[in-house]
Amino acid sequence: MHHITRNTYLIILVALIPFTLSCNRNADKQNTVDGTAARTNRPQDKIQKDIKEVTTSPPIEFETVQSWQIPAGGTGRVILIDRKHFNEADLSNLASILREKCRNDRYAYIFVFTDRKAALLRDKGAAGTATEAEYALMDKHYVAFYAKNSNTGVEDFQIFFDGPMGENTKTIRF
């Protein structure tokens, strides 16, 4: 198990968002004969299709434990899901639900936790004032992150199967 420290947690929260926002989506397009852009057949296209198939299952319930307005248009949230939904199929379903919920937002940042206490510690962790035990609790229960930036076209859902510092992750690009 990876143990998250105060500095690495801050790096995740602060560095992850700008990295996600700066991704260039032009690489996903190619010019057609008539000059319009068309999507290439990417592995992500299969993931998107799989998500649509998964969303026919009952929606995943979640609770918003914190929210804030993003000045440029949109909402940030910290949400809580039941630990039983911490699996690829349910989190992929949640990704689709969050995408639909945020369809009118220019920007959206959603932090997904499986423990209320860990979710409520997010601000303390981002401020660098959490204890080592609190960082460990957040590391254990911070399971996914949704980001949307309409200016760059970036819209991703990242799943952290072994914590945000782990190597077993999955990114769903919309």
Beta-strand residue fraction: 25-35%
Number of strands: 8
Q: Alpha-carbon distance between the termini?
A: 30 Å
> Given the C-alpha coordinates, what overall shape results?
globular
Residue stretches low in confidence (pLDDT < 50, at least 5 long) are 1-55
User: What summary fits the major beta sheet?
Assistant: 6 strands, mixed
For the residues shown, what is the average pLDDT?
78
Number of H- or I-type helical stretches: 6
Helical content class: 25-40%
Structural class: alpha+beta
Q: Which strand order spans the largest sheet, edge to edge or round the barrel? A: 3-4-5-6-7-8
Order of helices and strands: HEEHEEHEHHHEEE
**Radius of gyration over C-alpha positions, nearest whole angstrom:** 17 Å
What does this structure look like?
The chain is of the alpha+beta class and 174 residues long. It has helices at 6-21, 43-54, 88-101, 116-120, 122-127, 132-141, and strands at 29-31, 37-39, 62-69, 74-81, 107-113, 142-149, 154-160, 169-173. The strands form 2 sheets. Strands 3-4-5-6-7-8 form a 6-stranded mixed beta sheet, with helices on both faces. It has a two-stranded antiparallel ribbon with strand order 1-2. The longest helix is centred in the N-terminal third of the chain and has 16 residues, at 6-21. It is globular and about 35 Å long. It starts with 5 loop residues before the first helix and ends with a strand.
Show the helix and strand layout.
Layout: H1 6-21, E1 29-31, E2 37-39, H2 43-54, E3 62-69, E4 74-81, H3 88-101, E5 107-113, H4 116-120, H5 122-127, H6 132-141, E6 142-149, E7 154-160, E8 169-173
Parallel strand pairs: 4-5
Antiparallel strand pairs: 1-2, 3-4, 5-6, 6-7, 7-8
